[in-house]
Design brief:
Shape: rod-shaped
Number of domains: 1
Strand order of the largest sheet: 5-1-2-3-4-10-6-7-8-9
CATH class: Mainly Beta
Number of helices: 4
Distance between the termini: 85 Å
CATH architecture: Roll
Number of strands: 10
Largest sheet: 10 strands, antiparallel
Structural class: alpha+beta
Length: about 180
Amino acid sequence: MRWDRLFDDLEAQLLGEDARERDSEVADRTRRERALLDVHTRMLANVEVQGVSLRLAGRVITGTLVDVGPDWALVETGPQRPVLVALAAVRGVTGLRPGARTPSVVAKRFGVGAALRAVSRDRAVVELADLDGHAATGTIDVVGADHLELAEHASDEVRRTANLTGRLLVPFWSLGSVRRIH
């Protein structure tokens, strides 16, 4: 009987050690996998999630995360109120659920320039904010390789030469957000 207890005790110790080893291995593997995640894959897993807040310099953009590119996010702040946010301008994000999603090869190539070209094609009046939160309104005339050119005019006017108040060149690295006004 004494031997039975000794063997039971040894078996329990071995089982406990196996469980601790397995838990340690799972935790280590989880840490390694999480170390490979980037902002894009974390946010991509939260497309269609409501109540996501992106904190930028001096302002917070809250709404439904509609789409995410390698260097941008599209947030619907209200009905037909999309805001394109440069991920480089994001200082923090709240409202994300756990998880990550690997982007498709096409999605990896669809950078902020491609997203801005779609806005430019529509000739939409936009409010553009830079990294510091300084805003300008107008129509995106040109989207280059690393910049855009905004024909500045009042938000309640259409882009006509007579309505222009200036032209603003904005490098992508200083872009904060672009919001369609109409």
